[in-house]
Amino acid sequence: MGRPDGRAVGAGTGRSVRAAAERSAGLAGYLPQRERPRERLALHGAGALSAAELIGVLWGSGTQGHSALDAAADALQRHEGLVGLARATDVELEAVPGVGPVRAAQLCAAFELGRRVVTDWPHGRWTVRAPRDLGERLVPQMGYLEREELRVVLLNTRNAVIRQVTVYQGNVSSSLVRIGELFRDAVRLNATGVILIHNHPSGDSTPSPDDLRLTAEALAAGRLLDIQLLDHLIVAGDGFVSLRDRGVAFDRNV
To answer: Would you tell me how many other CB atoms lie within 10 Å of the CB of residue 56?
Structure first.
């Protein structure tokens, strides 16, 4: 059916529906096409997008009254940036207007994939040549844990990693840690060297007297077992401290 101006009713109705959909999607619907996050990603790559734009691409279209971009910016502001957002629970994410359970799950999954890209152990054995080889790999995994963990990395004679073992979760104190537990898997797997790693949930990586005491006891036990303790790393927030680099006398060089 036609109109006096010659335009088809169906075409005008289609444009009206699209316009209404863009209005319901929020801000992204009003942006010129080349400035929309998905189009910018295709043209310039992911590195050119802000954190809010990347999250907006992940979430796709908006909800009634909230564009994906607006919801992402709100979530980042409420949690003081990406680090806070990555630590948020699904319940906290769902509380942000325009997010809900589906988007919260998508964001949690994306952050977890990002952590695994950084922290996954390579296929096959790889060699530890310096404290940073372990520290930089474990900071994203352990830096923001809410409770302490003590891990042991087992090495062969060439400092190739055999396995990583979590031996304690909770209060890592020299009075509570059984030194024999640190070397149990090393003995079983014929490791010749180990590196201790634990985190400080406080965010302060400064070695405590207890950390130094645990290191001294582990050094003595390792020498009795002929398994060398090569370093003790303390991870906190976005950084780590190597006790070897702090001047503690360990066995052979890393």
So the answer is: 26
State in words which class domain 131-242 has.
alpha beta
Kindly give, in sequence order, each residue whose CB lies less than 8 Å from that of residue 40, ignoring residues fewer than 6 positions away. Answer: 34, 48, 49, 53
φ, ψ dihedrals at 154, nearest 5°: -95, 135
Domain spans of the chain, in order of start: 9-118, 131-242
Beta-carbon contacts of residue 36 (< 8 Å; ≥ 6 apart): 28
Give the N- to C-terminal CA distance of the chain in Å, as an integer. 81
Note whether 188 and 225 are within 8 A (CB).
no
209 three-state secondary structure: helix
| More confident call, 123 vs 112 | 112
Given a cut of 70, whether residue 198 has pLDDT beyond it is: yes
Topology agreement, domain 9-118 and domain 131-242: no
Read off the pLDDT of residues 205-231 as tens digits, 9 standing for 90 and up.
999 999 999 999 999 999 999 999 999
* Length of the chain in terms of residues written: 254
**How far is CA 166 from its chain centroid?**
18
Can you tell me the distance from the alpha carbon of 60 to that of 106, in angstroms, rounded to the nearest whole number?
11
Determine phi and psi for 60, rounding to 5 degrees. Answer: 80, -135
Q: What is the CATH number of domain 9-118?
A: 1.10.150
> CA 55, CA 112: separation in Å to the nearest integer?
14
The SS3 assignment for 151 reads strand
Does the pTM surpass 0.70? The reply is no
Q: Which helix (H) or strand (E) holds 198?
A: strand 193-199
SS3 127: strand
Alpha helices in 88-178 (DSSP H): 90-94, 100-119, 131-142
Question: Which 3 state secondary structure label does DSSP give 168?
Answer: strand
